[in-house]
Amino acid sequence: MVEVVVLGMLAVAAASLNGAFAGRPAEPFQEAARLLTLQRRRTARADVLLTRIGVVSLPLAAALAALVVPFGDRAAVGSGVGVVWFNAMEVVAWGAVWLAGWGVNSAFGLVGGYRFLAQGLAYELPHMFALITAALAAHSLDLRIIGEAQGGLWFAVWMPAAFAVYLVSALAMAFWGPFGHPVGGDAAGGVLAELSGPDRLVFLAGRYGLLTVAAAVAVPLFLGGGAGPWLPAWLWSPVKTCAVLALLVWTRRRFPVLRMDRAMTVAWTVLIPATVLQMLVVAIVVV
C-alpha cells in the first residue's frame, strides 16, 4: 500500500502547486480545515444519498485505480489486467461526477454532470486506443510488463501520438485545465456549485487523486516505468510521476477551457484518427 500513500501525498502536492498558481496560499491543509468546519449546504428536494455516493465514489475510484500502479516492479495489487482495471475505474468516476451533479437537484450541478458525460464520450475512445497501443507493443495488459518492455526505447519516443493523446485524455478524465467545463465558472461551478463543506473537500480530493493516478500510469505506459540511471527503480517511478503531474497541473493556467462541442469535434476528427494510425503503425512493427 506504499504506492497508494505516495500517490496521495503527490495529490496533496498538486493541490499546493495549484494554489500557488492561482495566487492563493499554497497550503491545502488550511483550506481542508476550513471546509471541514463549514456546514453542508442543501438544496430543496436534494437526493442526499445519491449525492453522497457520487462524492465518495470519486476518491474511491482514484484509490482503487492506484492499487495497480507499479513503482518499479512492484504494485500494491499485482494484476495481469492492470490496464483494464485502470480504465474501469474511469467509468466509476463518470458515474460519481454525474451522481454528484444530479443528486443536488440544481440546474448548475446537472449541467456540470451532463457536460462531464459528454466530455467522457469525447475522450474515452482516443484514450482507450492510446492504452491499447502501449499494451499491443508489450503483448500484455500488465502495467509492470509494459514498463519492463521499454528497456531499449521508451514508448513515448516511438509512439508520440499515443503519448500525447494519453496526456490530453488524462486532463479530460480529471476535468482539469482546458477540460474543466464540467466545473466551469459559466455554470457557477457546475458540479461543484452546490457542494460545500466536507462534501466539497472529498470531491476535490477525488479530482486531484484522479489527476495524480493518471500521471502515475503514464510512467509504465510510455516512460519506461522504473528504468533509469543511478536511482533505484522504485524511486524513478515517483520522480517521473512528479514530472508528468507538474506538466498536467501547469496546463490549468496556460490554456483556455474548451466548450463541449469543440472538445468533441477535436476528439472525433483529430485524436481518434491520430491514435488509430499510431496503433496501426505499432501493429505493423510488432507483427
Number of strands: 0
Strand content: under 5%
Q: Quick one: overall form?
A: globular
The gyration radius over C-alpha positions equals 19 Å
Report the biggest beta sheet as strand number plus sense, adding barrel if it closes: none
Helix content, binned percent: 55-70%
Number of domains: 1
The number of helices is 11
Structural class given helices, strands, pairing? mainly alpha
**What is the ordering of alpha helices and beta strands?**
HHHHHHHHHHH
Instruction: Name the average pLDDT.
Output: 81
Span from first to last CA?
Answer: 37 Å
Low-confidence stretches: none
Characterize the structure shown.
The chain has 287 residues and is mainly alpha-helical. The protein has one domain (2-286). It has eleven helices and no strands. The protein has helices spanning 2-21, 28-37, 48-66, 82-103, 107-138, 143-148, 155-158, 160-173, 197-222, 233-250, 260-286. Helix 1 runs parallel beside helix 10 and helix 5 packs antiparallel against helix 8 (160-173). It is globular, with a radius of gyration of 19 Å. The chain starts with a helix and ends with a helix. The mean pLDDT is 81.
